[in-house]
Automatic annotation (TrEMBL), chain A:
Modification sites for O-(pantetheine 4'-phosphoryl)serine: 34
Protein name: D-alanyl carrier protein
Signal peptide (UniProt feature, chain positions): none
InterPro entries, sorted: ACP-like_sf, DltC, PP-bd_ACP
PTM (free text): 4'-phosphopantetheine is transferred from CoA to a specific serine of apo-DCP.
TrEMBL record, chain B:
EC number: 2.3.1.-
Protein name, entry field: Teichoic acid D-alanyltransferase
Organism: Liquorilactobacillus uvarum DSM 19971
Subcellular compartments: Cell membrane
Entry function: O-acyltransferase that catalyzes D-alanylation of both teichoic acid and lipoteichoic acid (LTA). D-alanylation of LTA plays an important role in modulating the properties of the cell wall in Gram-positive bacteria, influencing the net charge of the cell wall. Catalyzes D-alanylation from DltC carrier protein.
Location (main, coarse): membrane
GO molecular function, one term: acyltransferase activity
Transmembrane feature ranges: 12-29, 35-52, 59-77, 83-101, 113-132, 144-162, 188-206, 311-329, 335-353, 374-397
Pathway the protein takes part in: Cell wall biogenesis; lipoteichoic acid biosynthesis
Coiled coil region boundaries: none
UniProt record similarity statement: Belongs to the membrane-bound acyltransferase family.
Length: 76, 402
């Protein structure tokens, strides 16, 4: 699951950095924006089968690869 | 009956300070005096919407009854079914009062609508947000009393910041430790005094002293002149210090009451680009537009694969967002042009960021380019405020009248 999320993030950001530093702040570093976020939610839905409504997405809870992995593992 | 507008003069702060004392003492002993808070909230609403403004008071009551019933009915429906058309109808019904208030002046020669009142926009943002979260199944219960507390929270009722229902109710229902509360008091006092500096000194200096002078000079000169440029900067400073000062009061007073209302400004003139600017300027509004319009629209388009190109989707999202923001400010050409201007600016900004990412190795990045970026962003923003101010409207079309 962890690898899957990292792969999604790498594809979305077009950068290997997310795989190297799992605590990088995706929004502050400019790796992810609102558009990328929506893509992330859609990828999680189609690849991992988890449904995250846009309302559930609170930026501060999803801003690093590690936090996203934890969220996904929690929701499965 | 007296009428006092929020945060306008020392009397208001004095009454507020006295009225908040029991709440503060209660908080220091780990107790939330909800009944007392309701009582003084009511008193302050009467001060703001009573007396000479009684018509607004009636409008507010009518509005609240309508919107709370709407939320209740939609919640009742959503427990059983989830049709898109019902959701859309609920959102449309929720914004109809605001639309009427915004459209009326354009058709009635500037006369304000009877159903309008101070802060109707901000209440509408809160209601629409709730309907959307009820649809998403995030707000599960219909609790009219809490909804009233959220909608009518008096420190932020007139001009925000726009809080979120789940965030607000969490704060409202949690008791906080003395240490945490002392920390909040500390911040609250700091915000309020910073607000005094912003609103009563800086905004007064720019808005009430400089602005009329520069305005006269620009008008008597006529057409485009350096005085228009001066007006642009003076107006921008006034706009920022006035609104940021007001927001600091609202946040500071919220902190006194144990509610961590989100901040509205984060050094906006230090922004490196327009995107960065909107993450720092009137943040609760721009985040509202981001979360409830932009992201949902993009989500809808991508999920249904209506448009292939991600760039086109993003640009369409920006245009929609800023056009709605323009119309929300009011039905005048300059508010709408202001919206379109910002949409274009952010679309350009995105294109530049993509270009920069591609050619990272060849584009210098140092203190000078950073300063240049801030300078360009600042001037772009100030120019947009010149459009927003409506001064060009006076200058171009009504100059002779003055």
């Amino acid at each position: 699951m962890k690898d899957q999320v990292i792969e999604i993030l790498q594809n979305l950001t077009g950068s290997d950095e997310v795989g190297k530093d799992l605590d990088v702040n995706l929004f502050e570093s400019g790796l992810l924006d609102s558009m990328g976020t929506v893509q992330l939610l859609l990828e999680l839905q189609s690849q991992c089968g988890i449904d995250v409504p846009v309302s559930e997405f609170e930026r501060s809870e999803w801003d690093t690869p590690n936090k996203i992995i934890a969220k996904v593992e929690n929701m499965q | 009956m007296p009428n006092i507008q929020p945060y306008q003069n020392p009397t208001y702060f004095l009454i507020l300070g006295v009225a908040l004392l029991p709440i503060m003492i209660g908080m220091l002993f780990g107790k939330k005096l909800h009944w007392y808070q309701t009582l003084i909230s009511f008193a302050f609403l009467v001060l703001t919407f009573g007396g000479v403004k009684w018509e607004q008071g009636i409008a507010l009551i009518g509005y609240i009854v309508f919107e709370v019933c709407l939320i209740g009915l939609y919640h009742l429906y959503r427990k059983k079914k989830n049709a898109t058309w019902v959701f859309c109808s609920a959102v449309i019904l929720a914004i109809i009062p605001l639309v009427i208030v915004k459209v009326t002046p354009a058709f009635e020669n500037g006369r304000a609508s009877l159903i309008g009142f101070l802060g109707i926009s901000y209440l509408t943002f809160k209601v629409v947000q709730m309907i959307m979260e009820i649809r998403d199944g995030i707000i599960k219960e219909f609790r009219p009393w809490l909804i009233l507390q959220f909608l009518l929270f008096f420190p932020t009722i007139s001009s925000g910041p726009i809080d979120r229902y789940r965030r607000f109710t969490k704060d409202y229902n949690t008791t906080i430790t003395r240490d945490k509360y002392l920390n909040m008091l500390d911040k609250g006092v700091w915000y309020i005094f910073l607000g005094f500096l912003y609103k009563f000194i800086l905004a007064y200096f720019f808005g009430s002293r400089l602005e009329p002078m520069v305005e006269q000079l620009a008008l008597s000169h006529g057409g485009m002149s350096w005085w228009v440029v001066a007006y642009m900067y003076v107006y921008s400073m006034d706009l920022f210090f006035d609104f940021a000062g007001y927001s600091l009061f609202a946040v500071g007073i919220s902190y006194f009451m144990g509610i961590e209302t989100p901040m509205n400004f984060n050094r906006p003139f230090k922004a490196h680009n327009i995107k960065d600017f909107w993450n720092r300027w009137h943040m609760t509004l721009s985040f509202w537009f981001r979360d409830y319009i932009y992201m949902r629209l993009v989500f809808f388009i991508m999920k249904n694969k209506l448009i292939k190109s991600r760039i086109t989707i993003a640009n369409l999202g920006y245009l929609t967002l800023f056009l709605i923001m323009g119309f929300w400010h009011g039905l005048t050409w300059y508010y709408i042009v202001y919206g379109i201007f910002h949409a274009c600016a952010i679309i350009l900004c995105d294109a530049w960021l993509r270009f920069k990412k591609k050619h990272q190795a060849h584009i210098p990045s140092n203190k000078f380019t950073e300063g240049l970026a801030i300078f360009i962003t600042f001037n772009t923003v100030c120019f947009s405020f010149l459009i927003f101010s409506g001064f060009l409207n006076v200058l171009f079309f009504h100059g002779a009248l003055n």
